[in-house]
Amino acid sequence: MRGKGANRRVAGELESAVLAVLWEADGPLTPAQTQEALTKDGHDLAYTSVATTLVRLHGKGLLERTAAGRGHAYAPTSAAARQLADRMRGLLGDGRGRAVVLSHFVAGLTADDEATILALLAATEGEAEAEAESSNHGEGAAPGEAEPSGAPSS
User: Which residues contact 34 (CB under 8 A, 6 or more apart)?
Assistant: First the structure.
């Protein structure tokens, strides 16, 4: 049995690194291409470790697999992003310490992360405003308002 050494990865770290590489890619990657991208990111991994991780992520429904020569190429599914977001929300919790945890999270963001979050918040606000605008222009009178009768009132 292998003990926990200084070089041992945290659970889920390899899967997260693989998903990050695949999200950054312009299209599906083969295990060799994924390994190469991971090496550029500072991960020294054997081909078999990368291939096994890709197969496991596919088995979890987080990657889609397409034929590529004699092997396969992999790309993340939308379920992968949703699952990671759910995991983040779960770690954040819903207790009184939520603001403290969020403040530490925000303090550790890079400038790129901050810009991305601000853009996402702005887009979400824009979508909410557009939805509210369209629901205000629906047919019929709003609740509590009388329907116009067409006859002038005196």
Answer: 18, 21, 22, 50, 54, 74
pLDDT tens, the chain, 154 aa long? 444 555 655 557 899 899 999 999 999 999 999 999 999 989 999 999 999 999 999 999 999 999 999 999 999 998 888 888 888 888 887 777 888 888 888 899 999 999 999 999 999 888 777 777 877 765 544 444 444 444 444 4
- Residue span of the structural domain in which 103 resides: 93-136
Nearest CA to 59 out of 20, 97, 15, 117 is that of: 15
> One-letter amino acid identity for 123?
A
Provide the CB-side half-sphere exposure for 44 (13 A, CA). 2
67 sits in which H/E element: strand 63-68
CA dist 153 and 146 (Å) reads 13
Q: Are residues 27 and 74 in the same domain?
A: yes
pTM score: 0.61
If phi > 0 it is left, if psi is from -120 to 50 it is alpha, else beta; for residue 93 that is left
> Could you tell me if residue 141 is inside a domain?
no
